[in-house]
Amino acid sequence: MRRLVALAGAAISLLLAASSASAEVVDCTPIETVPIVITVQGIYCLKHDLVTSITNGTAILVNTNNVTIEMNGFKLGGLGGGTGTTAYGIASYSRQNVTVRNGTVRGFYINVYLLGGLGHIVEDLRLDGARGHGLFLGGSNLVARNNFITNTGDGAGSSAAGIYLDSGYHISITGNIIDSVSETSSSNGIRAEYAEQSVIERNEIHGIIGGGTRNGIYVGSGLRNVLRDNIVTTSTGSTGIGAFSSSDACVRNVVTITFATPFTGCETSRENDSF
């Protein structure tokens, strides 16, 4: 009996912990309509789904430092802008400590765009149907983790990426799942240009399709990046993992041989496999 009581108590504790982890954030400033410009530091949240049909500009623009956008499991939708939209879902420029988490952003040209600044965190998002890039990052000391990015591309531009990193320092891109990226000229699961001393780890990338160049993970100019424990699969493609910056290390990655070149670059290459 004591064992049953102990087990029941443990189960209840686990349920309470899970409930607490996903509990709605209520001590926050609600975002009731979009477009909106945030100019005061603090925690902002969604209390219901929000939609917009804007074709340019930004639905939620963060124009100050130290802002958290807690989506509470709700959706910010931009499909009404159509396939030719150039609008962004959530964006900031040269700010510090912007966090976006726990919800869905759908149908913008770039769903989440944090360019410049430092200390940003993007986590636990579903980034669906971006017409250009699911997540676009640039700056230093940034984290993108545990996001599901799907159905990216086929918009007004000629290139698309699940995650695009532009000029980043000390970036952690970990635990993301990227599925179905398609564009006419260039399709990338994760693309990094001018990244330095950053880590791309434990990501899954599937279905890099469309025309032109198709890459699972591509790292261009930069310095001393680590690509570790990533899985890249697709039916056909150009490069599974290509790391061309100075002194990049590729360790324990797995890529399908359906890519014309499963691995290339990678100044240090160890325990990688293709199948």
TrEMBL record:
Swiss-Prot/TrEMBL keywords: Signal
All copies of domain Periplasmic copper-binding protein NosD beta helix, residue ranges: 159-252
One Pfam assignment: NosD
Species of provenance: Mesorhizobium australicum
Keyword Signal: yes
UniProt name for this protein: Right handed beta helix region
Signal sequence range: 1-23
